Amino acid sequence: MPARHPSHIERSLTQRHEQYRQRLATTSVHAKRLLDSGQLAASQLRERSGRLLAGIGLTGSLLLNSVVGPLAGPVTAQTQALRQDFAVSLKESLAKVTPTQPAKLSSDQAEKIEKVIYEQTSVVAKAKLEGQELNHQVGYIGYEQHLSRFPGDRLELHDEEQVAGIAPGLGAWGYFASSKEAFTETDHRREKYYAVAQVQWLPDFNQNVRFYSNWYKYRKILIVNPANGQAVVTEMGDVGPAKWTGKQFGASPEAMKALKLHLGPRKGLVIFMFIDDPNNQVPLGPLTEPLQLPQA
After folding, report:
1. What is the band of 34 on the pLDDT scale with cuts at 50, 70, 90?
2. Distance CA 223, CA 218 (A)
3. Residue 121 has pLDDT above 80, yes or no
4. Between 20 and 30 A from 141 (CA), which of 164, 194, 210, 266?
């Protein structure tokens, strides 16, 4: 059997890690509370696994250590090089077909960009999906604040980029969960990697508010920074920004960090496309290598 690249192994371990998180959550009330609240991240499993295992009577600490070891430690030089190669290849391929200013893509433009993205990432990105398309697929994106995930949510409970602060109001679809106790890992990642688009400016929005609200809620979006080849998988979590900002899109602090747009002006030109993922197989978060889907 040929050796797999370290980045592929890391991706596989990430998927296994999620499975073990689910097993922990169904085995222990204490573990579920930590996982669902977002207080137990991958990097924390190693240091807290002993207490969790003791509390739930498990003896397989080696299992947890083998899952999170590569994720908790620093990224190897080889993995970093593979990620850099991936980003450079995506950047160079997109440079030939991507407009250099905000645009609603023509059918020909969209087809070329969709083809490049699929060939480079294995993600099925679409400018138009199920008859829906935004007013722009290429546009400027801005750095958004964290959103309140449940009543009583606080900035210090969020994972990273706390410098962003937390928005005073709720996102377009309200809280991600009805309470802290009901807050799940899915909710956690939805807010961590959320996207914003100007759905409110679609031509017939006022006549079809309910339809658009239902269709766009948590719609999966691929955002690519064509200037550096960085990409991130997100879900729609809010609508905006206002036209006067000169931006067409927004993204969570962590998503902007994945795009390397979290410093300086915190703004940049991106490709913003729907992901055709009917079986929900494309995980949220940075896309640093071609997608490895589970075997059928």
Report:
1. low
2. 14
3. yes
4. 210
Rounded to 5 degrees, φ, ψ at 141 are -115, 145
* Six-digit token string for 56: 């739930």
CB-count burial class (<10 Å; 0-12, 13-18, 19+) for 50: exposed
Chain CA centroid to CA 168, Å: 22
Whole-model pTM over 0.85: no
What kind of fold does domain 100-287 have according to CATH? Barwin-like endoglucanases (2.40.40)
Predicted local confidence at residue 270, as pLDDT? 98
45 touches 64 (CB < 8 A): yes
Residue 267 and residue 143 in contact, taking contact as beta carbons nearer than 8 Å: yes
Distances (CA, A) of 149 to 120, 154, 174, 267, 291: 34, 9, 8, 24, 28
* Residue ranges covered by each domain of the chain: 6-72, 100-287
